[in-house]
Amino acid sequence: GYPVRVLREDSVARCGPLGGIHTALQSGDADAVLFLACDMPFVPLSLVRKLVRTLRAATARGKLPQAAFCTDASGRLGFPFVLRRDAGDAVA
User: Fold this and answer.
1) Alpha-carbon gap, residue 69 to 78, rounded angstroms
2) Which residues of the chain have pLDDT under 50?
């Protein structure tokens, strides 16, 4: 039930995933964007929903976090994740 966009070209060349993240935040009109890596085709819907709920719940409590990330066992951030559109300046 979520709208989908596929970016084929980044607005900032040769920046890897960061260029795509920047492009999506600058070119879209959604309040927040869910980012999925193209080499992770089997992300469970339950995880996507949890990320979206986490960001929505924090926002509803009056907190304005800019993101909800997945982490590995050591705490490193990774895909998938949700960024609020106003995180664009930090990404730039």
Assistant:
1) 7
2) none
